Amino acid sequence: MGICKEKGRWIVSKYWPHGSGRLRILAPNHTAAKKLLNRVESAIIDGTWRQLKDELAGKRRDLTVS
Fold it and tell me: How far apart are CA 9 and CA 51, in angstroms?
């Protein structure tokens, strides 16, 4: 999990805590992917990951947030 490049696209992939699914988002570049991954990991540490999960799911419908 983390950041990887597939077919010229940057993908952020991370499991949410408590087995509630996986976050998988396309990012335009490596810097944006790192920022998003840092934001997700900070939310997990702070305990606000459920709010971030809802925010990311509601922001764009073409994201795969499960």
Answer: 26
